[in-house]
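Incident review: delayed structure delivery

Summary: a single-chain prediction request sat in the queue longer than the usual turnaround. Root cause was a stuck worker, restarted by the on-call engineer. No data loss occurred. The affected request and its eventual output are reproduced below so the record is complete for anyone auditing the incident later.

Affected input:
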Amino acid sequence: MRRGSVKKNVAAIHVSGKLTLLQRKLSNVLLLNAYDTLLTQNRHQIDARTLALMIGYNSNDMDTLRDALRGLAETVAEWDMLDERGRQEWGVSSLLSYAKLKGGICEYAYSPALAEKLYDPKIYALINLNIQRRFTSGHGLALYENCYRFVRTGSTGWWPIETFRRLMGVEDSAYYEVFKHLNAKIIKPAVDEVNRTSNVRLTPELRRMGRAVSEIRFLIEENPQLAMFDIKGDHAVRESAVYAQLLGQGVSDRLARQWLAEHGEAVVSEKLSYISGKGKVRNTAGYLRDALSKGYGAQEPKPEVAPVPKEVVAAVEKWRSAEAEAEAELDRRIADRDARRRRFAAVEQAVSRRNPTQRDADRRLFLSTLADDLAREEFQRHGWASALNANAIFAFWEDRDPGIFDGL
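Output delivered after worker restart:
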């Protein structure tokens, strides 16, 4: 699980637009955990607390994890693509066929048809989980996933606006049918987050039909501030002789790339030579794991290290400082989210104590305080659980029930 990236099939990326940020991160981590055995195992497992930490939220908050897993099981994945013979293939499946938490272990499964699509190596995007963790909005991460697979071509190509709204998960919102709203609330914030957070930079371009915007595309280039720290691509790793030796010893693809990324080709090669001199070994992969983690074998000589240029040192320090700030900001956001969740729970309890007439009056009174069309639409859809109206909801109930949030 320490490999930093996961292949994600285009079909999976294109159908997950309606996922929340947490659900999108969760789906990527679950896929990373299961990827090597997608076609050989029907069920997959991961420690629940490890899963929570990899997504970046409180590992004791199992309620949030349950809700996110439920959301993946209830989300329908639909793909429409060409097969190897050029024939059109359409399919539909839930993102997870089931999931359960028992004894601190998360067990889950994919439908056989979706597992084949997720594993298909011909068309994929390389999702970097270290970069994923920095995103704080679902629309930003969705845009990154849909654009990053085109990084080598430099452009996404033209998407009809209807397709783009579907990729962002807002095709059912009348508010976002107005391009001005779509641009202000979705496109600009998502592009800004991708450019600040990830290893690519995006520039949107528009096509018009008359006065209306009909298509959008994104020009893509590497982010010079993060590209130098990007992880070596899977393709280059798989071409190395040491990688081939590892596979020959029965080491899985995922584990081989993880060890090469962590220890380097020279160290792994030295450990392989050490083990080959031990004669017949019953479990080569297990022995090699111990050799790497515990330092078995001859100590590799330390190469002479050339002085690092001052500008590189400065760039690295700047990046580390930015990383620390990003981590601190992420911690603050997690704390704020937990506090907000507790406040929403308090509002739910307060609403449950009201009779139907009072509840209806509360809703009508609160709606009268909302001037923004998007805010009103969100409240109509989600009620007192509307995240967009969180601050207004808390202020409303604090006024009606002073002290409702004390001690939270």
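Verification: Confidence is low (pLDDT under 50) at residues 9-13, 227-233.
Action items: add queue-age alerting; document worker restart procedure.
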